[in-house]
Amino acid sequence: MSTEKTSLSKADAPAATAPGNPEAAADAVTAVDPRLLVREQGFAGYVTEFRRKMRAGDLGSIPVVLGLAVIWAIFQSLNSNFLSAQNLNNIAVTMVGTGMIAVGIVFVLLLGEIDLSVGSVSGLSGAIVAVVSVTHGMSEWVAILVAIAAGAVIGAIHGFFFAQIGAPAFAVTLAGLLFWNGLMLQLLGDTGTINLDSEGVVAKLTTYYFSDVAAAYGLAAVAVAVFFASSYLDSRRREAAKVPARPLSEILLRTGVLAVIAFVAAYVFNQYKGLPLALVIFLAVLVLTDFVLRRTSYGRKVFALGGSVEASRRAGIDVTMIRISVYAISGTFAAVGGIFIASKIAAANQGAGTGDLLMNAIAAAVIGGTSLFGGRGRTWNALLGVMVIVSIQYGLALEGIATPVQYMITGGVLLATVVIDSVTRKTQKTAGRA
To answer: Residue 85 falls within a domain, yes or no?
Structure first.
């Protein structure tokens, strides 16, 4: 890739310099984008760039990936069944409910805000599905749509009070936590539990597996092909626009790493029951939401708002509507997560949405790498974070360790993540990158 210049050439320099100093124009040195130099230096250039990012506090997902590797290594050394196909398959299915809720939390955290109502909203959505489909005999598909729509409306209500009225998001969503939990209890009635059809649509969300080995391998192949194609086309587009772009060698390396991960995962899933439907839906949601945040004007507005509300307002962004829409998205994914949680137990009960669900959803987003200060994060952070949390839960359960200890360990991991986030932010400010 040829070096592209980011300043005027010598021929053009006189027009951009003081007319009384032609010598300075003649001796002007062209500036080169450092990212271009890094990529032209090959492997050594990337090592240099990596060191620079570490010194500047730009850690990315490195801490959580290393942490997950350490967690898996420790639990595997304690119990050889931890990395078995069955246990990993169970982890993959269990994490989807909390992970869906965490996806919505990522959107809210990008604004630098919080949503404390998602646990209660998820429990309410499960209750709505049960009441509409079991008590009133309506189609489960209709029940699912009603529950998701209810979640979106609830989130929009929270967003309205926060964005339009000016009430603090913490207080609004705390009130929502109490109100929607009470409504859930009211809907479930005196019995407190409504069992779902074990062969119905909702139950199949977490019990259906694509048993044909071609399904898992096929999905892996499609994912790798789509990743390569999108990366290559994006690189060509950036080159045409004369901005820094990844060389083909880097794209091939990234694609190779993804291929190894995808096909190993497919192999593991095929050793037990096959590819879980729940995981396929979760991955599809992550791809879609990541595209929205990174490739659309709406996503750029969300990041801008998380960086500076006043600057966003002066740039012409409708701050009120973005805030309301983000809380509507949070409510929507809380409802979707609640449906998956109800599917896991094939019932809606009074304990849904309570306990550690709220904290786990927020912790998943933060542990995965989404900043509590706003403006930094991706929906893929929800996947990494929830994998850490559920892995800890399953690993400790295999060792027969009590729930209180699980809470303490998860809390310690969350505290470590927040500390890393705070230190990283300070380092980036010092380096002029925050």
So the answer is: yes
DSSP track, 349-409: ETTTT-TTHHHHHHHHHHHTT--TTSS---THHHHHHHHHHHHHHHHHHHTT--HHHHHHH
Q: Count Cα neighbours of 352 within 13 Å in the Cβ-side half-sphere.
A: 38
* Domain assignment of residue 29, yes or no: no
Q: What's the CATH number where 147 sits?
A: 1.10.3470
221 domain residue, yes or no: no
CB-CB neighbours of 232 under 10 Å: 15
Q: Is residue 156 a part of any domain in this protein?
A: yes
Q: What is the rounded CA–CA span in Å between residue 427 and residue 433? A: 9
118-130 and 140-160 helices cross at what angle (nearest 10)? 150
Mean pLDDT of the chain, nearest integer? 85
- Whether 221 has a pLDDT exceeding 60, the answer reads yes
Summarize the chain as % helix, strand, coil (round to 5). 75, 5, 25
- For the stretch 68-95, pLDDT in tens is 899 999 999 999 999 999 999 999 999 9
Residues with Cβ < 8 Å from 96, sequence gap 6 or more?
206, 278, 279, 281, 282, 337, 340
* Residue-level pLDDT at 175: 96
Total number of domains in the chain: 1
Higher per-residue pLDDT: 257 or 8:
257
pTM of the model: 0.85
In terms of residue numbers, what domain contains 331? 68-211+273-430
346 is written with which tokens?
Answer: 């094939």
CA nearest neighbour of 301 among 285, 324, 283 = 324
Pick from 395, 360, 364: nearest CA to 382: 364
Q: How far apart are CA 36 and CA 207, in angstroms?
A: 49
Phi-psi region of 60 (alpha: psi -120 to 50; beta: other; left: phi over 0): left
State the pLDDT at residue 307: 86
- Cβ contacts of 397 within 8 Å, gap of 6 or more: 406
How far apart are the C-alpha atoms of 53 and 87, rounded to whole Å? Answer: 36
Q: Give the Cβ contact number of residue 164 at 10 Å.
A: 12
